[in-house]
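dumping this here before i forget
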Amino acid sequence: MAAGEMQLSAPSSGWSRARHAMSVSWLIYVAAILVAIWIVGPFLWTLKSSFSPQNDLLSVPPQLIPHHWTLDNYKGLFATLPGTSPGQEQLIPGELKNSLIIASSVLALNLLFGAPAAYVLARGPVRFRRGIVNGLLASRMVPALVLLVPFYLLFRRAHLIDSLQGVVIAHLAISLPFTIWILRGHFARVPLELERAARVDGCGRLRTFQYVALPLTKAGLAVAGLFAFMVSWNEFPLALVLTASPRAFPVQPALAGLYSLQGATYLNYGYLFSATVLSAGPPAVIALLLQKHFRQGALAGAVK
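structure:
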């Protein structure tokens, strides 16, 4: 009897373990779906609302699916706004262009100046290397609001207020230290044997950096470039203080001032949603294009 009971209990215990594992798997799937909805849901709602007419946006309860889809909200960004003086056009398209110019310039300058500086910190004979690296990392702990008054006074004396160049310099100042810190770690992981072989073959320090170190750190360059672009694109306080007219406004201050542009008596929520979708488009496209290198760069060094 004891042997029979053991034979009967063994399959039942295995079945219970299988049911437990299946239950855990379902719980993980449900949790992942809820997290995905929490993350993606607001953007999907904004995207849906940007194609919804004004009546649907003001309806109570809210319409999950619009009665009809429309492009009027996007067309309105390029036309004269209701409730404004004749000839006053929406400024979002021009400000999107300004943001693209500023963020692209910050990305390019970060890589142009950050890569050589990081390579020197990783390979060159630098005194106080540890202090410099810690200082670069500590600079990210300084809030941008602390820099508003010094930047404004300095740029006003240099006649850079209300100019794209001034915003680029300010964004470069807050993003370049972290770019150097990121790239230094990637250059430090390049095998020294490859660089020594290049030196034996006649390559100088510059050619070794150009033809050996840079190609092996493409993932790190993608991470640093994407970080610099996102910091510049989403930065708000400096851009708001250092610009004073639409010719230099980036898109983030424009979104904040969209209510005042439309007037207190008329507010088209469709314009707000469509402008938000347009402002989120370029970073999303760049992230999708660089996602392969971004994954490699973000996980570099996690496994030896």
